[in-house]
Amino acid sequence: MAKTVLAVDDSASMRNLVSFALKDAGYDVIAAMHGKDALEKSGGSKIDIVITDLNMPEMDGIEFIKQFRSRPGCKFTPIVMLTTESQESKKQEGKQAGASGWLVKPFTPGKLIETVKKFVH
Amino acid sequence: MLKAAQGKLVLLMLPSIAPAFIENSRVRCLSALAVSIILFFMITTWMNRLKREADAKYEELGEKHLTESETIIEGVVSLLKEKSLITPVLIAQLREVIDQTEAAALDISDKFISIVGRARNQSSVASEAFQKLSSNGSGSGEALLDVSKKALSGVISSLQDAASVTGRTLSEMELIIRGTESIRKIVSEIEYIAGQTNLLALNAAIEAARAGNAGRGFAVVADEVRKLSDRSNAAANDIRKLVEKVETDIKSIHVTTHSSVSENRRISCEAEKTVEQTLKKIDTTMSEVSAQLDGLTGEARSLAQDIGSIVVSMQFQDITRQRIEHVIEPLVSFKREVEEMEQKTHRAEDVLHSDKASAAGWLEKTYTMESERAVIRNVLGPAQG
């Protein structure tokens, strides 16, 4: 059974391409445009891994990670941050919120899939 | 204070300014008083004139500075207003740039995904078509080309078998023709026997006749033998004719068949060559199609791999978008600060106006004459508040 990836990014083109790359690699994808949207869309689904941007309107990545982590059954779900920020402080902020890892933009689909596979066996 | 000082000065100078030739002290005092009064008025007039001139200059300078300050402040206010109007336009322009690039990037990504999908579909359709072409469609995996080769080889083999059978028939016909020769020889032998029998019958008839009545019965036998000889001869003739007819017919069939066999062999040979050439052509075409299909599949795969670079490029759009947003944020802050500064400048202008009012008040307090106050009102306008 295919694993489900929750992909959160406010850029529609990024959502499109990330979803395409993940689907191409055999994953089911739930795409959301910001943290609030992601929480709504992933409510009734079993999420195997979360790929989220950090700078987003409505609810940013850090707040989303905190709220997602507080959900029952989501304590150990891998969360990968997609960010243009390579600063250590931003990574630390994300890690403190509950992120499992990060991927700095720009990245190739190969790198994305490799990262996803690292967390989802 | 000034007037008091002037009075004191006159009193001190009064005795010394009286002319020395006037001996009468009263007269001297009176004259000195008169001179003093005259001097007092002259000095007072002169000092008032100086004061008026100084006030006028002060007023002129004050007015000039006020005007200049007002001009500068008005300029600053106008500039701030202008900048505070421009800033939202810049912000809106940048947001529109973000929206447009985002829409363009989305469009590009949609189109690219569609192209990859179509390429994959085409590759799949072509591969399926080739699979059908290169197999017999039964799913056994046997190549259509091999089936064709076998079928055509079977046809050629049948043609060759037919030619071989016909060849054997020709040989058999030749045997029959050779058999008819033997029959003809036998027939000749029969004819010879019939002739000799006829001769014997004739001799027997002659001998019977010579014997007279005693040979009458023998003559009947001799006649019957002669008749048999004639019938044998006639039968042999019939056989000869029949054999000749058979031989002629068989030879005719032999010639026709021989010609047909040669033609069949030629056709079979040509067909074999044509089939071989066709199969080679099919083989070559299939190889070419297979190579092209591999190329097509490779292209589709490569196109899918290109998505990697597209994804990377698209992220630069996203990075640019975030950088523009980082430009917008300080612009919004700048706009707010400009607005605050504009308000502060307005307040400064009010203060300046109030300073102007207070300067007018100070001058008004300094002046003692109604005419002097009238000058202030003329220059600075009616007093505020």
Tell how many strands the DSSP assignment of chain B holds.
Answer: 0
Major sheet details of chain B: none
Percent of residues in beta strands of chain A: 15-25%
Most extensive interface: A-B, 20 and 25 residues
Termini separation of chain A: 12 Å
The class by helix and strand makeup of chain A works out as alpha/beta
Order of helices and strands of chain B: HHHHH
- CATH architectural group of chain A: 3-Layer(aba) Sandwich
Query: Approximately how much helix is present in the residues of chain B?
Result: over 70%
Return the average pLDDT of chain A rounded to an integer: 88
The radius of gyration of chain A is 13 Å
Structural class estimated from helices and strands of chain B:
mainly alpha
Parts with pLDDT < 50 across at least 5 consecutive residues of chain A:
none
Number of domains of chain A: 1
User: Looking at CATH, which topology of chain A would you report?
Assistant: Rossmann fold
How many strand elements of chain A?
5
Order of helices and strands of chain A: EHEHEHEHEH
Keywords, separated by commas or semicolons:
heterodimer, A: 121 residues, alpha/beta, Rossmann fold, five-stranded parallel beta sheet, 41% helix, globular, B: 385 residues, mainly alpha, 91% helix, rod-shaped
Topology summary:
The complex is a heterodimer of chains A (about 120) and B (about 375).
Chain A: E1 4-8, H1 12-24, E2 28-32, H2 35-41, E3 49-53, H3 61-69, E4 79-83, H4 88-97, E5 101-104, H5 109-119
Parallel strand pairs in A: 1-2, 1-3, 3-4, 4-5
Chain B: H1 2-13, H2 25-134, H3 144-211, H4 216-366, H5 370-380
Would you kindly provide a written description of the structure presented here, covering whatever features stand out?
Chain A is an alpha/beta fold and 121 residues long. Chain A has one domain (4-119): Rossmann fold. Helices cover 41% and strands 20% of the residues of chain A. Chain A has a 5-stranded parallel sheet, with helices on both faces. In chain A, helix 3 (61-69) links the parallel strand 3 and strand 4 (79-83). In chain A, helix 2 runs parallel beside helix 3 (61-69). Chain A starts with a strand and ends with a helix. The mean pLDDT of chain A is 88. Chain B is mostly helical and 385 residues long. In chain B, helix 1 runs antiparallel to helix 2 (25-134), helix 2 packs antiparallel against helix 4 and helix 3 (144-211) packs antiparallel against helix 4 (216-366). The mean pLDDT of chain B is 79. At the A-B interface, helix 1 and helix 5 of A face helix 2 and helix 4 of B.
